[in-house]
UniProtKB/TrEMBL annotation:
Source species, domain of life: Bacteria
Organism field: Myceligenerans crystallogenes
Family assignment from sequence similarity: Belongs to the AlaDH/PNT family.
Keywords: NAD, Oxidoreductase
Keyword Magnesium assigned: no
Name used for this protein in its record: Saccharopine dehydrogenase
Gene3D superfamilies membership: NAD(P)-binding Rossmann-like Domain
Lineage of origin: Bacteria, Bacillati, Actinomycetota, Actinomycetes, Micrococcales
Keyword Transmembrane: no
Domain Alanine dehydrogenase/pyridine nucleotide transhydrogenase N-terminal: 8-142
Amino acid sequence: MPISTGLWLRREASSNEQRTVITPADAAALVADGFRVTVEESAHRVFPIDEYAAAGCRIVSADTWPDAPADEIVVGLKEPVPQPSALTHRHIFFGHAYKGQTGAHALLQRFEEGGGSLYDLECLTDENGRRLVAFGFWAGYAGAAVAVLHHRGQLSAPLTAMSRAELDDLLARYRDDACALVIGALGRSGRGAVEALTVAGVRTTGWDLAETRQFDKSALLAHDLLVNTIFAAEPGRPFLTHDDLGRDDRRLSVVSDVTCDVTSDCNRLPVNDKVTDWVMPARRLHDEPRLDVLAIDNLPSLLPRESSAAFSMGLLPLLRQLPDDGSVWTRSLDQFTAARKLTSER
């Protein structure tokens, strides 16, 4: 029997966002399962629209999701375009709105105004709170790669999307004696960072929970590169403070903040309070000794095909649980409901 739930894959608003959360191959699997899959045209998506049509999807013009039938679930990666302001449908995307981030209140107000709901992709977890699907590996990979290239003076701006083979070629062209520290080394992002540093031939130290609890500031400052990949749900000891910037014993010269909690109380790198972007990937924090930070909040977009394929593969079995709200989707909706309630009470 055909499944009644419709999935409406919208285009992404950002011109440098080529990723998608559903690839043509996985869209074909959903269609075969009986899902109605509608895909908006996009000038930037890494997968051509013809591949979705061949997968059996219905193709529509960009930004037509506001007029989609009420029972459609609108699927995307980041927040949709600003208009209409009221969000009426059920939506699936990364909201980044539950830890006090900049723009969080405005996003939740859009749902309050329209009566819609959000299944936040960041909140698809198992019963132990472990995230079930994420772009983390490729965020860590790209974050470490751009840090290495910047340290070597090889990072070209503005950044452009590429394949892993192209990025690996850049990393392997040159060898130096740099050393890097990855915090959160055993997580998805940390594993990606370590792999990229291995390709680049950079000596790497990995810290995870045990090492971070012990926390040796002098050891941290003795590395050339720091790649922060931890996912912090609450405030904690900062890794780098303003008092550290002028220390004579600081070897550290490049920080890649993959986590990018820059506007949240959970920010473990309070020396940085701004994201960087593709046009200006690095920002100078201190002159002598030099310290630059890279805090790009859509790192996996540098490798759009690989990161999209991995994420879509992980999301597919969860989408197959729709339309019945299984525990995974219920947990995500519960977090949205709690956050929206707080917003409405203010």
